[in-house]
Amino acid sequence: MSQDDHTFRLGEVLVVCAPSGTGKSTLINMLREEFPDFGFSVSYTTRAPRGEEQNGREYNFVTREQFVAMRSRGDFCEWAEVHGNFYGTATKPVEAMLDAGRDVLFDIDVQGAKQLKKTFYKGTYVFLLPPSREELVARLEGRGTDSAESISKRLTNASGELSQAKWFDYWVVNDDLELAYQELRAVYLAGRCKPSLRPGILGNIMKTWEDDG
């Protein structure tokens, strides 16, 4: 499809960030279920797989040495060290999906999102907020996967992450799951209508006036 065709649309970059335990994975899975054509950015990480996670699905699991080599080559559009592990996103696969008109969903931390905005500054950046500290503690403890020390560290990190929420485009409070999803869904659909993602539409519509005359 030609970029001159009025139906052509570049892909949207949708970035979703949240403190650990906010419910980000649940909301993202709901979005992907409704919109299965999403191009999902599968990050690289040096942490070990959890539960039923599979290499190439939730993450590309690599060694610390492999990650450092990729970073040195400039393969990542963003990378960060979180909870003692490296996470990063390769640039070329993302650009290819966007150029083909496919929206790309990023599930990354605040550090990575801030780097990403330097490259994909026209993207849509969403920060998910927990309703309160108490609720976040309850959710982290309820998962049964983190030690008391790990929960304490995640709460400390959450405070720092919340202080960065101010530069995001949208805030969604995950108090009621269905309401939070409807807000996230609305943000995504609105982002698809940005003029920067439909470079040919206005000119081609205006051209119909010229053709008619």
Automatic annotation (TrEMBL):
Record keywords: ATP-binding, Cytoplasm, Kinase, Nucleotide-binding, Transferase
InterPro entries: GK/Ca_channel_bsu, Guanylate_kin-like_dom, Guanylate_kinase, Guanylate_kinase_CS, P-loop_NTPase
Enzyme Commission number(s) of this protein: 2.7.4.8
EC category: transferase
Principal localisation: cytoplasm
Alphabetized PROSITE patterns for the sequence: GUANYLATE_KINASE_1, GUANYLATE_KINASE_2
Cellular compartment(s): Cytoplasm
Sequence positions that bind ATP: 18-25
Domain (Guanylate kinase-like) ranges: 11-189
Pfam families referenced in this protein's UniProt entry, alphabetically: Guanylate_kin
Signal peptide residues on this chain, from the entry's feature table: none
SUPFAM superfamilies: P-loop containing nucleoside triphosphate hydrolases
Catalyzed reactions: GMP + ATP = GDP + ADP
Superkingdom of the organism of origin: Bacteria
GO molecular function: kinase activity
NCBIfam families: guanyl_kin
Assigned protein family: Belongs to the guanylate kinase family.
Function: Essential for recycling GMP and indirectly, cGMP.
Classification via HAMAP family: Guanylate_kinase
Name of protein: Guanylate kinase
